[in-house]
Amino acid sequence: MGKFYDxxxxxxxxxxxxxNAVKLCIVSGYGSAAFLGRVMAEFPKLNxxxxxxxTPQGISKRNHSGFKALxxxxxxxxxxxxxxxxxxxxxxxxxxxxxxxIISFNGSANFTENGFFNWHESMSEAEIDSAAIFECQKxxxxxxxxxxxELDINIYEDETLKLEDEIAEDDIQIEAGTIAEQxxxxxxxxKFVVGSKKLHYGFEVPVLFENxxxxxxxxxxxxxxxxxxNNAPFTATFKPGEKIIxxxxxxxxxxxxxxxxxxxxxxxxxxxxxxxxxxxxxxKDNLIEYSDxxxxxxxxxxxxxxxxxxxxxxx
Length: 315
Description:
Elements: E1 4-5, H1 9-18, E2 23-28, H2 33-42, E3 47-52, E4 59-60, H3 61-73, E5 77-82, E6 92-96, E7 102-107, H4 113-118, E8 123-126, H5 130-139, E9 141-143, H6 149-152, E10 155-156, H7 176-189, E11 197-199, E12 202-206, E13 225-227, E14 244-248, E15 253-258, E16 265-268, H8 272-280, H9 290-296, E17 300-305, E18 310-314
Parallel strand pairs: 2-3, 3-5, 4-10, 14-18
Antiparallel strand pairs: 1-8, 2-6, 5-9, 6-7, 7-8, 11-12, 12-17, 13-16, 14-15, 15-16, 17-18
Helix pairs in contact: 2-3
Domain Restriction endonuclease type II NgoFVII N-terminal: 14-131
Keywords: Endonuclease, Hydrolase, Nuclease
GO molecular function, one term: endonuclease activity
């Protein structure tokens, strides 16, 4: 029977098994650059492949920058972001040894400080074909340093958009009272965070994100699309592939659909960019920049539910 741990996970799983291993492969829903840096500092010669499975829903700029910096520092490290739906919430660690032994653990702990130190999680030794799982994950992923990664993944700056295990991950030493206060603030602010927010009259969706490069922004593509934030994919409301009809306050009609593989993208079949550039009073041939939106005073489109399966766009 395999070993089971529900305490001292860092000691029992990482320290006890990594010291003689030649490689560690991880699949984790969420991951922390701070935690990965800690492991790399303790085992600088250990080859590590980390696959993050929840990244189709976004990752914070701080974590993204941290992962890229670690890859630049360690030639023996690879960090992969899954780019396709459905997301992966598996937690699996496989330690590989020079004599071809593989020791694997799976359970509830994400590859984070919270998963291995702060929260009550459990991990069990498992006899599974981990190689097949890692190969499958690799096919759905790109390296975090890939030049096109920001076209596939939302790299967000707003701390209120942090997911599950990323909450307080960058600031582990915050006092309990402060965390409680932040939690209440997040509840109060939840309907105002940047993203595709369900409102009683429809949705509010960003034209582009502050950290978007204009040439890469979905709204500036030949086939324009809007991108939902990590906290509310479009598939929460719309069926993938289903035609959605939008009207504007100026009488335009647009049709759109949500991509089945990328649930945070809504593609438009007509030139919605020209509608926005006209509102911004810039040439339709110009790339829309975030500074244009700031000057206009609005960064979001309001998609008003008309109650008849059509929506009106307000901007």
